Amino acid sequence: MITIFFFLLCLGVSDGTRGISLEGSKGKWQFLLKNTGVVSMHMALTYKNTVIMFDEIGAGPSRYPLRKRFGSGRRCTRRAKDLMDSTCFAHSVEYDISANSLRPLRLDTDPWCSSGSFLSNGTILGTGGYGKGAKRIRYYTPCGKNRQCDWNESKNYLSDERWYASTQTLSNDRAIIVGGRRVFTYEFVPKMGYGEKSYNLPFLQQTYDKSAKGNNLYPFLHLSSDGNLFIFANRDSILLNPRLNKVIKTFPRIPGDGSRSYPSSGSSVMLPLDHRDNFQKVEVMVCGGAATGALRNAGKGRFIEGLRSCGRMVITGNNHKWEMEYMPEPRLVHNMLILPTSHILFINGAKLGCAGYDNAKNASLEPYLYNPYKRLGTRITILESTNIARMYHSSAILLPDGRVLVGGGNPHGRYLFRNVSYPTELRLQAFIPHYMDKRFNSFRPSNLTIESYGGGKSYGIVYGREFEVRFMVGKFVSNNNEVKFSAYAPPFTTHGLSMNQRMLKLRCKRMVQKISGGWVTAVLEAPPSPHVAPAGYYLLTVVNGAIPSMSEWIQFRNA
Ligand SMILES: *[C@@H]1O[C@H](CO)[C@@H](O)[C@H](O)[C@H]1NC(C)=O
Ligand SMILES: *[C@@H]1O[C@H](CO)[C@@H](O)[C@H](O)[C@H]1NC(C)=O
Ligand SMILES: *[C@@H]1O[C@H](CO)[C@@H](O)[C@H](O)[C@H]1NC(C)=O
Ligand SMILES: *[C@@H]1O[C@H](CO)[C@@H](O)[C@H](O)[C@H]1NC(C)=O
Ligand SMILES: *[C@@H]1O[C@H](CO)[C@@H](O)[C@H](O)[C@H]1NC(C)=O
């Protein structure tokens, strides 16, 4: 028997849109559920293919009534007293993606406007919140179909109250939590040794705008590939060395008036890191936000246009300058998600006002597709619009099958459905991007499996090691049969932030295709270090030109 192999091109050289036309492909919307019960103010995807959603406990009764209270197990009746009792309702749910179903989760303290990240073993780390929840650390260890797992509050507390703080996983398997309302410090979880406290960060005091409820809350955090942390708040940004607890760089202020951080609430993304420069170049982008005075005016019923501007800046090297460009419309309280194609999806949001209860108007119903590799001025395409407003307290998250889950929205302190312009939004949708169009099916790589996975007792791929993937592909998009590979760290999303979101374009070393059956085997190289990719679960995707496969989970780990 003779088996014939084709050797395929492993190098990623084009921007991935050559070869097929995406003309007229604006994506579409899918309706999933009428009632998630709980506003998905916060969302996080687990490696068991479920999505954790949660709201604030202080909002009172949700639309997910419980038969028995968590904890005491006391029955919840239809009596008025119980119907008003917040403990007779769920405030967090787990959404099963394939079953399109929900189950309630227990929350003991209020995670309102909290932050989160992931441990290297896939456990969600939730930090902070409101009232008794402000110093709490919560864990959620996903268990998939087993259906036993739940939130678990740690006996250890944060040093400071973290309400509107941001979290980022670092290269040493710890998370850093930065800021919070009236808190000008950062701290690490888990604590190093006994009694490690928080560290002062004068930058948070300097960027604090008292007249605008901060305008520097929920700072944007991005872990650079040199292990340093980029922190953006209001209009300014710094680079913090988290090992030495030292600010090592102050970047130029982003041009233009207005602010980008809560409650002005623009959004930010770290563009994909690329093996072709050994993941050296790191570029961040900040888009949208609110005009100066937006909060004060919203309080008087006047809604000022948000910002249209986007700024891009390379944060590595020594030459830092914001390159500015403009969106077709103003945008704030929106999400920016990296798609498997390495393009950025802008979704949800509003055009006027700012974040906070009743502070925004004119929902941004049209997502934008942003291609970072195109020429300035030609990067944004307007996609298919929805008819559901997703403004304050909404969120969106990329799913392993390539869709984007969209939920939430509630500009009120309670669940309100009548007599308001923007009712509490419990409908769940997915945005199905252009690349999932049926007409691209023959190009779509399928049956992706990760081979030579770990070995021995421990699971996962060690930094810098080679590993093998197998998949099938019918037709190649480009004439030189070019296929690319990406690894995506899914975010913890809330308030337009996608904490910990990270995309890596992986090095492919060899690739062959068996002539019969279309099976392709590729040898890839894991990222070189936890600076480039903190240990944990990533979504691995094969991209044929501009058409991605469904993603598979892969874990990167230290030796
Ligand atoms: C991950 O680590 C946390 C903290 O050590 C632990 O509570 C959790 O059970 C672990 N998860 C798994 C899946 O092993
Ligand atoms: C929380 O964790 C503790 C200690 O690991 C364990 O004893 C307890 O059963 C857990 N509770 C829940 C609700 O999972
Ligand atoms: C906001 O909505 C109003 C009413 O629909 C409309 O007249 C106005 O032009 C919109 N403003 C923007 C900036 O879209
Ligand atoms: C809603 O507004 C209408 C007319 O303004 C009023 O009759 C009705 O009672 C209001 N409903 C609620 C639930 O407030
Ligand atoms: C590829 O996956 C599909 C389902 O996605 C399955 O039906 C099919 O049998 C798989 N093909 C092979 C050769 O494993």
UniProtKB/TrEMBL annotation:
<dbReference type="InterPro" id="IPR037293">
    <property type="entry name" value="Gal_Oxidase_central_sf"/>
</dbReference>
<feature type="domain" description="Galactose oxidase-like Early set">
    <location>
        <begin position="461"/>
        <end position="555"/>
    </location>
</feature>
<keyword id="KW-0732">Signal</keyword>
<dbReference type="InterPro" id="IPR014756">
    <property type="entry name" value="Ig_E-set"/>
</dbReference>
<dbReference type="InterPro" id="IPR011043">
    <property type="entry name" value="Gal_Oxase/kelch_b-propeller"/>
</dbReference>
<dbReference type="InterPro" id="IPR013783">
    <property type="entry name" value="Ig-like_fold"/>
</dbReference>
<dbReference type="InterPro" id="IPR015202">
    <property type="entry name" value="GO-like_E_set"/>
</dbReference>
<protein>
    <recommendedName>
        <fullName>Galactose oxidase-like Early set domain-containing protein</fullName>
    </recommendedName>
</protein>
<dbReference type="Pfam" id="PF07250">
    <property type="entry name" value="Glyoxal_oxid_N"/>
</dbReference>
<feature type="signal peptide">
    <location>
        <begin position="1"/>
        <end position="16"/>
    </location>
</feature>
<feature type="domain" description="Glyoxal oxidase N-terminal">
    <location>
        <begin position="41"/>
        <end position="435"/>
    </location>
</feature>
<dbReference type="Pfam" id="PF09118">
    <property type="entry name" value="GO-like_E_set"/>
</dbReference>
<dbReference type="InterPro" id="IPR009880">
    <property type="entry name" value="Glyoxal_oxidase_N"/>
</dbReference>
